[in-house]
Backbone:
């Protein structure tokens, strides 16, 4: 809710959040809701505590039906975890639940995610029943998504997980333990680090480090440029350089990325290899909810698709371009400006 100081008793003035349904915000179910989810999988990634949730395709044919979205998440295995997403306007019904079960049966393993506007008690109970009676390789989640107006013609979004596969989560979390995780990913990153460590430092990064616990390569940004930290992360079908922005709060971090995009976006994108995508708001880092991310994504997949030498060439081009931009035109007080803007925005809502 919104809060402001009260002159009467010194207590904050609390009011209800004006929640709006997805229908009112996104319009058409396929062209609006499905398209929006496909571009904002970080919401499900955060809500369901998944790693590296990556879109595979939309409207995937399964017998005579079409699954709204098919994605994969990083579960420490070479093939990744199938995530089948069915979205629905209005109240949950048997038709959509049956389709989700049918889709997941086609994969024989993975997570079925049902994203809705309104969940009936009957279908919450049905999803919980499925989770109790399914095999260890299958789980179901039911989420209710809603929106609220935000400043600058934007919207806040909330995803409430009303049913989830707890036992399945424990099993998949155990699979992500490095002792039972993917040796292929670690080998890929080890070979990659050997090829890029010295050259990234020459390009301006302060230092690099290979993390073997939850495998990734961490990069420290050029000195006296921009805060936060960067990583080279490899999922089965996504390889990206991410810069995590830390401006003191999520609102300030989001604003910082808006300012960075306005200042550097055109130049950065002109220097990237063909097909490379820049996602200016990758979603906050779950290790610290006061973060937002820039992700620069390889066009041809992850560690199952790329050779280390090919990934290294791309990483040096992308990492070198981003470092050089920050060094040539230092951000200065950009983070402080983002904090001031976020504070002013908060004040407007009080």
Residues:
């Amino acid at each position: 809710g919104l809060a402001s100081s009260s002159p009467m008793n010194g207590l904050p003035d609390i009011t209800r959040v004006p929640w709006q349904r997805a229908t009112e915000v996104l319009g058409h179910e396929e062209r609006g809701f499905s398209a929006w989810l496909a571009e904002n999988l970080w919401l499900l990634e955060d809500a369901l505590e998944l790693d590296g949730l990556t879109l595979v395709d939309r409207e995937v044919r399964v017998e005579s039906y079409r699954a709204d979205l098919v994605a994969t998440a990083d579960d420490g295995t070479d093939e990744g975890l199938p995530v089948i997403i069915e979205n629905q306007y209005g109240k949950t019904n048997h038709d959509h639940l049956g389709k989700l079960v049918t889709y997941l049966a086609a994969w024989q393993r993975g997570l079925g995610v049902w994203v809705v506007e309104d969940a009936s008690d009957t279908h919450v109970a049905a999803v919980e029943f499925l989770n109790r009676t399914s095999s260890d390789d299958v789980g179901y989640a039911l989420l209710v998504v809603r929106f609220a107006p935000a400043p600058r013609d934007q919207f806040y979004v909330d995803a409430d997980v009303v049913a989830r596969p707890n036992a399945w989560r424990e099993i998949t979390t155990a699979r992500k333990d490095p002792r039972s995780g993917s040796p292929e990913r670690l080998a890929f990153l080890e070979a990659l680090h050997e090829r890029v460590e010295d050259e990234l430092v020459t390009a301006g990064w302060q230092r690099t480090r290979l993390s073997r616990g939850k495998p990734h390569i961490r990069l420290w940004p050029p000195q006296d440029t921009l805060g936060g930290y960067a990583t080279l992360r490899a999922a089965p079908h996504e390889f990206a350089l991410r810069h995590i922005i830390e401006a003191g709060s999520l609102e300030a971090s989001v604003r910082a990325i808006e300012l960075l995009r306005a200042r550097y976006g055109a130049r950065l994108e002109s220097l990237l290899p063909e097909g490379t995508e820049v996602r200016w708001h990758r979603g906050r880092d779950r290790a610290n909810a006061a973060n937002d991310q820039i992700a620069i994504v390889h066009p041809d997949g992850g560690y199952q698709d790329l050779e280390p030498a090919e990934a290294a060439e791309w990483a040096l081009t992308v990492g070198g371009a981003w470092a050089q931009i920050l060094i040539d035109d230092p951000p200065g007080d950009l983070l402080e400006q983002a904090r001031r803007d976020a504070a002013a925005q908060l004040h407007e809502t009080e």
